[in-house]
Amino acid sequence: MNHIQTDMQATTTSVLDTISYAIGQSALGNILAARGPIGVCAILIGSDAGTLRQDLANRFPGRVLLEDAAGLRDDLAAIARFIETPGAGLDLPLDMRHGTPFQQRVWEALRAIPCGATVTYTALARRLGMPDGARAVATACAANVIALGIPCHRVLRADGSLSGYRWGIERKRALLEREAAI
Q1: Active site residue 141
Q2: What contacts 36, CB < 8 A, 6 or more positions away?
Q3: What are phi and psi of 72, to 5 degrees?
Q4: Which listed residue (41, 115, 141, 152) is catalytic?
Q5: Residue 10 has what pLDDT?
Q6: How far apart are CA 69 and CA 76, in angstroms?
Q7: What's the gap between Cα 53 and its chain centre?
Q8: What average pLDDT does this structure show over 50-57?
C-alpha cells in the first residue's frame, strides 16, 4: 500500500511541477505562453525563440517544461489578438503565485489600470500606501513575467516618459500607442 501511495504522490508532484508552453508570432515578435495547473504563469515577448525558452527555464528552475503547441494554441491566439486589438481585453486565468507578497500586490494594482490609461511609478506606489516606494514598485514591475496579463507597460516615469521595459522600450511604445488608439 505504501508503494502505491508513493507512486501516486510522485505522479501528483510531477503534474504540479510541469509547465506547458508554446511559442507563436505576434505583431511584437515571438510570444511565449506558459501555463501551470492554475493558469498562465508566463507571457514572454522577444525576437528569439531560444532566448524565450531559456528565460522561461531561468524563471522556473526545477520545473519540468513541456512544449505543447496544440494545448496552448488558444492562449497564443488570445495574446496575439490582444496585441492587435487591446480594447478586446485579455481574459486568461493567471497564476501570479511566483512573486513575493509585495510583488503580487503591485501586480494586482497593475491589473486595475484600464487599457489606454497610464500611471507613474510614484502614483502607483502612493496607491499602495508607499509614498516613497517608487523604486520598489519599479523593481516589482521588472520581476513580472506575465507580459500583457499584468500590464507593467502602462507604468511611466514621474515626468511621463517611457522607462525600462524588460521586453524593450519599442515594444512598450507600440503597446501604449495601440491602447491609446482605442
Answers
A1: no
A2: 16, 18, 19, 20, 63, 95
A3: -110, 10
A4: 152
A5: 42
A6: 9
A7: 14
A8: 97
66, 20 Cβ separation under 8 angstroms: yes
DSSP string spanning the chain? -HHHHHHHHHHHHHHHTEEEEEEEEETTEEEEEEE-SSSEEEEEEES-HHHHHHHHHHHSTTPEEEE-TTTTHHHHHHHHHHHH-GGG-----B--TTS-HHHHHHHHHHHTSPTT--EEHHHHHHHTT-TT-HHHHHHHHHT--BTTTS-GGGEE-TTS-----TT-HHHHHHHHHHHHT-
* Strand 64-67 with 40-46, pairing: unpaired
User: What pTM, to 2 d.p., does this model score?
Assistant: 0.88
| Tens digit of each residue's pLDDT (9 = 90 or more) over 72-88 | 999 999 999 999 999 88
Give the type of residue at 83: I
